[in-house]
Amino acid sequence: MNINQRIFLQFGICIIIFGLIGILINNLTINLVRTGLGFNFSWLFKPASFALAEHPLPYTSSDSYVWALFIGWLNSLKVIFSSLILATFLGTLIGFARTGKNSLLGLISAGYITIIRQTPLLLQLMFWYFVGFLGLKDNMFIQIKNIFNISNQGIEFSGLTFSSEFLALLLGLSIFTSAYIAEVIRGGILSVSRGQWEAFRSLGLSERQGLIRIVIPQALPAIIPGLTSQYLNLAKNSTLAIAVGYSDIYAINDTIINQTGRSIECFIILLVSFLILNLLITNTMEIINRLILKSRKYS
Amino acid sequence: MLKIYISSIKVFLKTLKKKLFSNLFNTIITLLIILFISVACFNTFEWLISQANWKVVISNLPLYAFGSYPPNEQWRPATWIISLLLLSIFTLCGPEWKWLRKNLLIIWVGTIPLGLYLLYGGFGLSPIMSRHWGGLTLTILLTVCSSLLSLPFGIVLALCRQSSLPLIQKLSSIYIDAMRAIPLIAVLFFGQLLIPLFLPVGIEIDRVWRAIFAFTLFVSAYIAEDIRGGLQSIPNTQIEAANSLGLNQYQIIQFILIPQALRIALPALTNQSIGLFQNTSLMAILGLVELLGVGRSILANPEFIGQYIEVYVWLACVYWMVCTIMAILARHLEQRMTINQANF
Known about the structure:
The structure holds two protein chains of two kinds. Chain A is built from nine helices and four strands. By secondary structure, chain A is mainly alpha-helical. In chain A, β2 and β3 (154-157) form a beta hairpin. In chain A, α2 packs antiparallel against α8, α7 runs antiparallel to α9 and α8 runs antiparallel to α9 (263-298). Chain B is mainly alpha-helical. In chain B, α5 (75-93) runs antiparallel to α6, α11 (236-244) packs antiparallel against α12 (249-279) and α13 (291-300) runs antiparallel to α14 (308-343). At the A-B interface, α1, α3, α4, α7 and α8 of A face α2, α8, α9, α12 and α14 of B.
């Protein structure tokens, strides 16, 4: 293709795409005018007038929609980061069990991974919520002198309370993600060549020392990218909170849409909050990755 | 004869000892696992036989399979599902006739129009609206239609992202990255609630097709990335060889790049379609009565209230079974692809 053709082709395609977008936006404005809603964000500062069961910061139903959305964002962050830690812990354990010497343990973890990966996350979340927590008796399932209390209201632990919605989501997300993380970890460990294992054994290092000193540092660069994408998936999957009634950012947007009908504006808010979340996770993981690479270089 | 038998048992015991009881720590773990497995198995069997009340599953089997499809027309989706099942069995263990194997792909693609015809009706069958579709039929329909639609779209996006034209390359990367950054439920929400707002007054698309459209938008971005991986792993010498043979750009893409990229990306693509099958369950939140939606509506029925475990275990089994069938088919396809490569 010569240069004129290239420019012509690009402009042609751009005109078609922007023309299509223009037609869609035109339809949208016609529809918004027809339904009498219009497009503005001034409603954000009106009182939200719905209650939230779960709020890390003080919130009442007379607070504004912006504040409700912010609370939802905090709720999302809370569940994402806590299940991120739990999932990494569980996934690492299972990943090591899967690659370890004990073949029975390997078999069990392989079974765990297949069962978790072959059933939908939504089904698992509903299972944990409706069977795992709401199935418990009213209170006093386990009760140790008012310090630790599991009931269908959630878990109470020396003054700290976690609602059953939060716990079901935490458990479901962590278990689901841990199966994927285990596979990432296994892939990373298998990517270290057998020669390295044989070398540290012949140097007289114990299995544990060799694993910590030799294998894991070499497996980490292969693990981190996979881990990052699993964390991003976890963040995206946390929007299924709506199925168990946990008020995360998506659930609050949904409530607001049902209440005000402002679907376009809420959708834009949702997109922006997820872009921010994604940037947050990828940048953090990028920093961790760089630290690991650095530590390898100078060690 | 007996000697061989005994010695093989000896070898087996030896490996067992080495694998499971090599030291104290390992022995403790093994014993704990055996204890755990036996307790879990015992409890599960006890629950399965004596405690579980399977009436909620057995009396609702047609509902799980076809949703609220009119009872005297249920042979239509049943025919479709059974033909899909027979076709997968046939693909896996059927005869190795060459003419048949070559046309198997066409037969597979042909099941979609067949399914749509059987579900919609018309031409001799009584027409049935899509709001009556449901259950496993709808789940499979959503999966099949969206994965088939998103494949060409994904290929085009991947080619655009690899293109040397900067503007096109930018636009497609923006689309792919943005789609991969947002959660699926937001896209499905867009499909259900916002698409009607973007359409001119008077034109309506029904819910099932809006869902398929949303799934296609979402999955094609992921497929595009998988295919891009395949495209990038094709060595440059292939393109140079094609150039020196005098093929033009479109021929290179059609005969050299796409077949090889698809073959490399095949495992990732089949994983995407298995993931898509599981993700169709999200439509239960957004108001389509597919497999999980049927489960929810049955649990809302006062007759079956509180029987969560039975319903969820049953649904998990169905999802697990279909996923396994898909995975086996995928592995079969991969094996055939490598055999083809060896023949060259």
